[in-house]
Design a protein that fits this description.
By secondary structure, the protein is mainly β. The chain contains no helices and eleven strands. The strands form two sheets. Strands 2, 4, 5, 6, 9, 10 and 11 form a seven-stranded mixed β-sheet that branches. A four-stranded antiparallel β-sheet has the order 1-3-8-7, with no helix packed on it. Strand 7 and strand 8 form a beta hairpin. The radius of gyration is 13 Å and the shape is globular.
């Protein structure tokens, strides 16, 4: 069983940066990808970025060029570096582990509880 704990959320102004972290504990043999999702009030959850075991990364069009996903296997930690933040990036951000490359939501088997990101204009 995999446990995921996010941190690093907060409130910043437009144009600012944040780095989210997700500490992973436990093991699930099904895990092939790790990803970040977000959900804003009144909106559906959406995939933001993901990284597969082979290092392949995927990004939502809305964050390409601004966000970078990475992982430190030695620290069992997944990161999301977010730059040039916009008010529309405000949301609860969730870390998740999945069994399908590219981390489609239907393939995710473990979720963290989320960390809140608020961007003010």
């Amino acid at each position: 069983q995999v446990q995921l704990v996010e941190s690093g959320g907060g409130s910043v102004q437009t144009g600012g940066s944040l780095r989210l972290s997700c500490v992973v504990s436990g093991y699930d043999y099904r895990t092939y990808c790790m990803g970040w999702f977000r959900q804003a009030p009144g909106k559906e959850r959406e995939g933001v970025a993901s990284i597969d075991n082979d290092g392949s990364t995927y990004y939502a069009d809305s964050v390409k060029g601004r966000f970078t996903i990475s992982k430190d296997s030695a620290k069992n930690t997944l990161y999301l570096q977010m730059n040039s933040l916009k008010p529309e990036d405000s949301a609860m951000y969730y870390c998740a582990a999945g069994r399908v490359g590219g981390c489609p939501e239907y393939g995710m088997h473990s979720w963290g509880k989320g960390t809140l990101v608020t961007i003010s204009s």
